[in-house]
């Protein structure tokens, strides 16, 4: 059986939610059914959409709607 090293510190670096403490302990809960903790890469991709092109997709003839639809497809 192959043993794989899991570097929890490296994972914590990329997920802002896991940097906080709850009841004087580092947050470690990773319950994917209840909620998903997002790494910084997700925020880096999603934030520009909300900042510039936030609109309904596939339902608009206006420019922002077209941009949002294109971003959704990509």
Automatic annotation (TrEMBL):
Pfam families: Aminotran_5 (PF00266)
InterPro entries listed in its UniProt record: Aminotrans_V_dom (IPR000192), PyrdxlP-dep_Trfase_major (IPR015421), PyrdxlP-dep_Trfase_small (IPR015422)
Region ranges (Disordered): 49-74
Annotated keywords: Pyridoxal phosphate
Coiled-coil positions: none
Cell division found in the keyword field: no
Compositional bias of kind Polar residues: 49-63
Originating species: Candidatus Micropelagius thuwalensis
Superkingdom: Bacteria
Keyword Secreted: no
Aminotransferase class V domain ranges (all copies): 30-73
Biased composition (Basic and acidic residues): 64-74
The name this protein goes by in its record: UvrABC system protein A UvrA protein Excinuclease ABC subunit A
